[in-house]
UniProtKB/TrEMBL annotation:
The keyword Lyase applies. Pfam families: Aminotran_4. GO terms for molecular function: 4-amino-4-deoxychorismate lyase activity; pyridoxal phosphate binding. This is aminodeoxychorismate lyase. One of its GO terms (biological process) is folic acid biosynthetic process. It catalyses: 4-amino-4-deoxychorismate = 4-aminobenzoate + pyruvate + H(+). It is an enzyme of class 4 (lyase).
Amino acid sequence: METSNSSSLQKSAEVENGEEFKVHVFSSSSQLLEKLHEKWNSGAEQTYPAMYSSTFGGIVLDRAMMVIPIDDHMVHRGHGVFDTAIILDGYLYELDVHLDRFLRSASKAKISSPFPRSTLRSILIQLTAASQCKKGTLRYWLSSGPGDFLLSPAGCPTSAFYAVVIKEDFSQCKEGVKVITSTIPMKSPQFATMKNVNYLPNVLSKMEAEEKGAFASIWVDDEGYVAEGPNVNVAFITHDKELILPVFDKILSGCTARRLFELAPRLVEQGRLKSARIANITADEAKSAAEMMYVGSTLPLLPIIEWDEKPIGEGTVGALTMALSDLLWDDMVAGPETQRFLVPYA
């Protein structure tokens, strides 16, 4: 048995050293394209129905061709920003709000757009129309562009704009989840307040929660104040029926969180909420709240019923959380023209 194991280990080492494994060399682009089609189009559902690339100069409907250059500085230096808009029932929800934040992020990251805002908007609308997708997400990126593998983007001829439509079947969240306090250091305010592609802390924070049997995590800053989740904002309902959203000075200013704050006064008028405010809230105060929720684009609210193995309120989904969720969901489904844009599908 030992001889057999030794032989297997030796053979594995030889393979790892490249003595047996032979890398295929594609002699033509047609061979490569055939292999890409084999990989991506083998009966699988077309999850990505359309992509736009400024390096191509147009829209791609073939998933096998939805690629970006390896020397793009967003790939090897993380020099890029992104944002997302929701597609629901053939409408783009809060496209302009997200696009404005996108350009603010680009400015902070010192990335100039290859197109004016109006052109970016037109591209995103045409891309969504070409995709024929009626429900999903529209994700888009600005990169300092392809050019070389150096640190500075000085050698990049131009910035690059990419966008993709993703089919997603999301619905209003009504079940509560468990969260933990993240031990992964949160980003500094300079980077947390721009929606950039450097998401490794966010990824590790989410993985940490999953490893502990929780849905996701909560970041608490050095002063003990609640910050945000790995890719969502958080909000709380106090026992006095106040809605509190953490201050956005050190975290990303969530478009959905901002919209929630605009809609919440409707519940105040009905006497169901006492008030709504944006304020610092300590982790201890937050854990003593009556209700707690994540706030994000596709949720739009996700009830949180347990934090660090302790129940929030009664440990059940709160009535006010769902009332706020209904407000946001109704806004997504049938809100005003300022929030929803009807996509001109062919």
